[in-house]
Amino acid sequence: MRPHFPCDGRCAGSAPHICHLHVRGDTMKKVQFNSRWMPYAFLLPQLSIVAIFFLWPAAEAVRSSFYLEDPFGFSSTFVGFDNFTDTLTSSNYARVAQFTAVFTVLVTFFSLALALLLAVKADKVLRAGSTYKTLLMWVYAVAPPVAGLIGILLFDQHVGPLVDFAALFGWKMQIGVNYFDTSFAMVVISVWKQIPVNFIFFLSGLQGISRSVQEAANIDCRSGFRRFWTVTFPLLAPTGFFLLIINVTYAFFDTFGIIDVVLKTEPGNNPVTLVYKVYLDGFRGNDLGGSSAQSVLLMLFVFILTIIQFRLIERRVHYS
Amino acid sequence: MNKLRIGDHIVLLLGVFFMVFPVVLAFITSTHDAVTVYREGLQFGFGDQGLKAYETVLTKAGGFTKEVNGLVMLKNSLILGFGFAIGKIVISMAAAYAIVYFRFPMASLCFWVIFCTLLLPLEVRILPSYEIVQRLGMVNTYAGLIVPLIASATGTFFFRQFFMSVPDELLEAARIDGAGPWKFFIDILVPLSKTMIAAIFIIMFVYGWNQYLWPTLITTDEGFFTLVRGIKQILQVWVGAQIPDYDQAMAMAILAMIPPVLIVVIFQSWFIKGLVESDK
Questions:
Q1: Residues 6+ apart with CB under 8 A from A156
Q2: Quick one: average pLDDT of A169-179?
Q3: To pair with B7 at 20 to 30 A between CA atoms, which of A83, A109, B240, B280?
């Protein structure tokens, strides 16, 4: 018997099982080795790297967020939560946070939407499907700063074709000078760089929807548009949620190279993201305490994001 | 039905144009003389310089950086890419093996300590990480460049999940045959993980090759610059120059993307499998 899919989507509750995450229900192996020292020997390299290059710096970040260090690093005084209150009440930080939020929303939305559109089309065409797939996904391997470098060529004041194109509509684009124009270039380049990952996940999600489900939907629901929104879209929702987290993480952390290149490493009054500000205050501004406090705030943010992610994964386990 | 298909192809072709065109234009620019580009704007046909810019960038020290040429940077990029990928695979396979196949009192503590590393990207703890590497005297060394990047345990989780899916009967059979933990690992588990290792290798190689912020901080000696790190140098010249060397800048961009793009395209099916099943 074929599954029944009414157009209102009532039956579209079972999601395709795509396993994205590693930590699923903690099942243990039934048979295991017993050895007093061997497991520790196997774990030693990983644990020592984690201790030296992860736990130590993380603890250091938390510690120095409570201290005020003089610019030459000779002395530091305990200041309690001063660094945090200073950060959270500064108008500059609020401006950067606001930009980061807008930037993240735009990058996430456009890269997800465009990738979904392309994946749905690539899933449909029979001929040349794999050629399209290759041509649409290879940008995954391009480094963010390399994407940024090509971007600033296309947006260049003197030679950039995109600037000429915008001029046709009376838009005098000035990247690096005008706040809005610079943000615009950053968003476009970041979206370009992120489409491939989303495309790969959406396409494999679509291909995971079984043929029988699709055929059933084809019979029950004649309108392609409605079929997409009532059957395909809900089935892709778990992939979409997962990608949402991945994209927010990307917009926060992995766009550093793009932003640094677009600003030609001289931010001035241009928009920067929170992560870029951590770097800026720490390495250029020599404000160790402030930079650390910002790091800790970002840690909290990532922590919350991870919890949300795990909630979603837990729910996903029930689907399978 | 036919009409619909044409619509699909048009959307896909527009998508391909959007993804591919910027890079094609970058390549075209690299074949033109910088002065021509500056005077006449970006060109849409190939220039008369051929691959001269690549020769300059690869062999001449002093284009952008004063001490190294592109070949040295290429070598450093390869060391970073391979070193990171191989190091990560070896270390995380060993750790995952211990967690999955051994019964020992600290198992869950070790697991959670490693798990913690997923919470904090390097970018967030960049300043203290830099200070610690500096204190350890690892600035301007390959170890300082590679090892701290391995601290994030994504690989361990990937292999943990894969080992979980290996049927228990294998271990039972191996034990009956008298195989110890080491023999089981080398003779059975590693060969069994071949495709998984290949997939994770591709992802990690690309990740290592494409690192920017960390190499920027850790390598101040130009002899250790990678191609991607070299972009920072290009920018500084770009800002100061009357007529920026567009051709050489784009030649660098193309050179920096060729190896990872080739690997991803050639080993596409492994790469996609690894990506979708592991999330980095």
A1: A163, A175
A2: 86
A3: A109
